[in-house]
């Protein structure tokens, strides 16, 4: 996510309905981006690897936006080095934010979706017939609650931590700090009473919360000054993180080296030396 990405007024989106056809789509993500991560989690948990392959952009992000490099190359377009090129090919003169995730349609040869929340929902429902492990992440009886909670999480957790990190002044930081940690308290109380966010089973809402928790200790606590409490001081949230990251399909989506390199290198307005910390040691990851 960039500083402009969480401003809806500058968003121009690609929004199409997905079709359950094997190998039709290619998913571009950033291993660092929590909004990409929610979509990657759906792909991995449902076992959609054969139906929907994934490429990450490079960890380092420069002035030209998301890039591909020798480690993270675009397998579909060998001549492409910038994600912005795919936006331009899909919609010449595109004026929106060139964000990830991006869903590329091989048949139409263009981007067909780039809204992470809606894309995660469509992948969890419309692509379910292609799943090797068809987990119902949005059961009908809870679908309204899940969609409502996802919006709350997106606003108060996923985006709010960025409002802290990218705050232009003390007043904005203080307000974001207050709102984020009030939301964390709400989640802590909720998870003291139940194992998952909605009912007694894993749902799409858990995949919205989890990417922020995964990045909390290594990035947000220091880099974004989200330091009211350590994650261990939220015992229910911490145990929830430990339990979910032990699921192999979740664990294999985490690339902490990529995450840290992106944040500490790319956000040079926060970290001008671009020094990437060696720690912290994360027992749940190792």
Automatic annotation (TrEMBL):
<feature type="site" description="Lowers pKa of active site Cys">
    <location>
        <position position="263"/>
    </location>
</feature>
<dbReference type="InterPro" id="IPR036282">
    <property type="entry name" value="Glutathione-S-Trfase_C_sf"/>
</dbReference>
<protein>
    <submittedName>
        <fullName>Putative glutathione S-transferase</fullName>
    </submittedName>
</protein>
<dbReference type="InterPro" id="IPR004045">
    <property type="entry name" value="Glutathione_S-Trfase_N"/>
</dbReference>
<dbReference type="InterPro" id="IPR047047">
    <property type="entry name" value="GST_Omega-like_C"/>
</dbReference>
<feature type="active site" description="Nucleophile">
    <location>
        <position position="33"/>
    </location>
</feature>
<dbReference type="InterPro" id="IPR040079">
    <property type="entry name" value="Glutathione_S-Trfase"/>
</dbReference>
<dbReference type="InterPro" id="IPR036249">
    <property type="entry name" value="Thioredoxin-like_sf"/>
</dbReference>
<dbReference type="InterPro" id="IPR010987">
    <property type="entry name" value="Glutathione-S-Trfase_C-like"/>
</dbReference>
<keyword id="KW-0808">Transferase</keyword>
<dbReference type="Pfam" id="PF13409">
    <property type="entry name" value="GST_N_2"/>
</dbReference>
<dbReference type="Pfam" id="PF13410">
    <property type="entry name" value="GST_C_2"/>
</dbReference>
<feature type="domain" description="GST C-terminal">
    <location>
        <begin position="128"/>
        <end position="263"/>
    </location>
</feature>
<feature type="site" description="Lowers pKa of active site Cys">
    <location>
        <position position="220"/>
    </location>
</feature>
<feature type="active site" description="Proton donor/acceptor">
    <location>
        <position position="162"/>
    </location>
</feature>
<dbReference type="GO" id="GO:0004364">
    <property type="term" value="F:glutathione transferase activity"/>
</dbReference>
<dbReference type="GO" id="GO:0005737">
    <property type="term" value="C:cytoplasm"/>
</dbReference>
<dbReference type="InterPro" id="IPR016639">
    <property type="entry name" value="GST_Omega/GSH"/>
</dbReference>
<feature type="binding site">
    <location>
        <begin position="115"/>
        <end position="116"/>
    </location>
    <ligand>
        <name>glutathione</name>
    </ligand>
</feature>
<feature type="binding site">
    <location>
        <position position="66"/>
    </location>
    <ligand>
        <name>glutathione</name>
    </ligand>
</feature>
């Amino acid at each position: 996510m960039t500083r402009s990405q969480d401003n809806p007024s500058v968003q121009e989106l690609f929004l199409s309905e997905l079709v359950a056809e094997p190998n039709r789509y290619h998913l571009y993500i950033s291993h660092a981006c929590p909004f990409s991560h929610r979509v990657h989690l759906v792909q991995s948990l449902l076992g959609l690897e054969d139906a929907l392959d994934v490429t990450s952009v490079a960890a380092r992000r420069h002035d030209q936006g998301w890039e591909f490099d020798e480690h993270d190359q675009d397998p579909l377009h060998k001549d492409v080095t910038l994600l912005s090129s795919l936006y331009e090919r899909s919609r010449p003169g595109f004026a929106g934010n060139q964000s990830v995730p991006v869903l590329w349609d091989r048949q139409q040869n263009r981007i067909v979706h780039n809204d992470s929340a809606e894309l995660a929902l469509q992948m969890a429902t419309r692509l379910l017939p292609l799943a090797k492990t068809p987990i119902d992440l949005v059961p009908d009886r809870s679908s309204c609650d899940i969609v409502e909670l996802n919006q709350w999480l997106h606003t108060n957790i996923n985006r709010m931590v960025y409002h802290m990190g990218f705050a232009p002044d003390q007043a904005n930081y203080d307000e974001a700090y207050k709102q984020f940690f009030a939301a964390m308290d709400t989640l802590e109380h909720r998870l003291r009473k139940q194992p998952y966010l909605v009912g007694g089973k894993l749902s799409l809402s858990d995949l919205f919360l989890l990417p922020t928790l995964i990045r909390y200790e290594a990035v947000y606590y220091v880099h974004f000054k989200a330091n009211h409490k350590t994650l261990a001081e939220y015992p229910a949230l911490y145990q929830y993180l430990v339990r979910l990251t032990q699921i192999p399909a979740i664990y294999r989506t985490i690339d902490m080296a990529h995450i840290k390199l992106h944040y500490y290198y790319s956000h040079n307005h926060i970290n001008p030396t671009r020094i990437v910390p060696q720690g912290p040691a994360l027992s749940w990851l190792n």
